[in-house]
Amino acid sequence: MAYDDGNVFARIVRGEIPCNRIHENEHALSFHDIAPQAPVHALVIPKGRYVSMADFAAGANAEEQADLFRAIGATAVALGVTESGYRLLTNTGPDAHQEVMHLHFHILAGKRLGPMLTGGPMPPSSAP
Ligand code: AMP
After folding, report:
1. In b/e form, how buried is each residue of 70-95, taking b as 16+ CB within 10 angstroms?
2. What tens digit of pLDDT does each residue of 8-38 get?
3. Can you list the positions of beta strands (E) in 1-128?
4. Which residues line ligand 1 (CB under 6 A)?
5. Which of 14, 36, 40, 42 is surrounded by the most beta carbons within 10 Å?
6. What pTM does this model have?
7. By the 8 A CB rule, do 4 and 10 touch?
């Protein structure tokens, strides 16, 4: 999928719309989700034009890759959730319900989040 420069996270990176910033380094940025789905809900994004993790892994240079992962760690520290725990989640494509087509990691925390997915494990016969 081609990158769309009009997506909301691209506009945040360019400073065209505000965000509630948590952490920033040269190549990555984190901010609070506008519609939190847990008591703590942050997003960590690369500043570069990447739709997905595959896109990022193929195109981002070493500094961009390091900064994204540094920003994830620093954001968890800034949010104070490293001891209580958090879930790091990336939705990719239609099956995962990705709404914003700019790579982002959700950090969800602040309560017992339960098992991985609603509904629990699939029966073994249904697994792909
Ligand atoms: P996803 O379904 O993984 O693409 O998630 C996109 C997330 O971006 C959702 O949790 C939205 O609430 C969040 N979001 C959309 N617009 C904004 C915004 N302007 N500032 C912060 N978060 C946003």
Report:
1. bbbebbbeebebeeeebeeeeeeeee
2. 999 999 999 999 999 999 999 999 999 999 9
3. 21-24, 28-32, 40-46, 86-89, 105-109
4. 8, 19, 33-35, 43, 91, 97-100
5. 42
6. 0.95
7. yes
